[in-house]
Amino acid sequence: MENNDRGQWGSKLGFILAVIGSAVGLGNIWRYPYLLYTNGGGAFLVPYFIALFTAGIPLVILEYGFGHKFRGSAPLSFARGNKKFEWLGWWPSVTSFIILSYYTAILSWAINYLFFSFGQTWGSDTNAFFFGEFLQASSGPFDISGMRWPIFIGITVIWAINWFVSYNGVSGGIERLNKVLIPTLLGIMIIIVIRGVTLPGASLGLNKLFTPDWSKVKDLNVWIDAYGQVFFSLSLAMGILVTYSSYLPKKSDINNSAFITAFSNSGFEFLSAIGVFGILGFMATSQGIPIEDVATQGIGLAFVAFPKVFSLMGPVGTVFGVLFFLALVFAGLTSSISLLEAFSSAVIDKSGASRKKVITITSIVGYLVCVIYATGAGVFVLDIVDAFINSFSLVTVGLLEAIILGWIIGADKIRKHTNSVSIYSIGKWWEVMIKFVTPAILGVMLITKIINEI
Ligand code: PHE
């Protein structure tokens, strides 16, 4: 049954930008730089590129080929490939929705900080401001009292944008948004990097970032981090790439697109690593403290360390702050749109209901769930959900996906399909990756994670 309400990309470029939009997110900006730094600096590039070629790119081709061949969201594609495995499509789709519910909460913080950065209202103690005044983090996960109104307003704005864009369809909404935001984001990043590396002390940060520590290459955990990053960063195992490629016209170059999107994502990661460590080097130098004490990631980097640096910079700091939070919002928005799409598309395919209706209902429910994060329980719930999904769900889905698609639905069939539409063919090596190498690596990752947890 072909649902007429399934959209289609207006151009191959639109598709590629939308996938880059999904891939380039908070992970590129606030996770990768620190990962590179703590896992051996320049030496980390070895596990990173091996992970990219043995799991990242093969899985991107697999998900593209799968969605394109069966022309459906993850559950529909699985159902068409082998009815028994429809559930394996629902798992990542539902996970997408759960991630979406807190990813949008973080985005609402970023949008608030975008406004704060005009007047640098975070003051001199940025840590106390963030946790105390802004989040008003309470003492436990069960305190859902007390609405944090600025966060609530941020959440409302983000969800209104998500709804509006998706409501307008694949090419009329998602493609259009990405065509504007992704080039703008690239421009902003380039400005941040150029100014960042010319700050006094930047070279200190960059030296620390890239100086290779080869002993790390022998550490299993470093390899696990490399695979984990490639996985999360390329938005794999979420049903996103399957869904996005199902909107491509029948004749579209799959293999080529896979390489372009993977390399663009890595390019964004390098850019942000250089920008972030240039700025951290400046902070360490101007404060006279070692870089080890300022290097950090995630929430601590974006909402505590960076606001502090922006304050130290004088008037330039205002511009820097605005650009940085704008980058965070743009990168995050395009990722959140892809999460919403993976879930909604699954529901549209299953129910046959109209896109407009499904997007509207999903947005209302998602918005209501997200509001929990604007209460006292916010950060606690967020940490728990995030840790569970990242350490468990993604790897498990990736593993099952490689096994079921590789062995049961057939890697050979998918390879034949992608080669039939692509200019450059991929060789037999790809089947070996999908059937043996990728599952073996993901299996080791999963076992290690389980052992580490208990
Ligand atoms: N790839 C995004 C990032 O690097 C995160 C993301 C993961 C987005 C999964 C959507 C789905 O931040």
UniProtKB/TrEMBL annotation:
Pfam annotation, one family: SNF
Alphabetical keyword list: Membrane, Transmembrane, Transmembrane helix, Transport
GO terms for cellular component: membrane
Keyword Transmembrane helix applies: yes
Residue ranges of the TM segments: 12-32, 44-66, 87-111, 149-168, 180-206, 226-247, 268-289, 309-337, 358-382, 388-411, 432-451
Coiled coil segments of this chain: none
Location of the protein in the cell: Membrane
Keyword 4Fe-4S among record annotations: no
Bilayer disposition of the protein: Multi-pass membrane protein
Protein name: Sodium-dependent transporter
Protein species of origin: Senegalia massiliensis
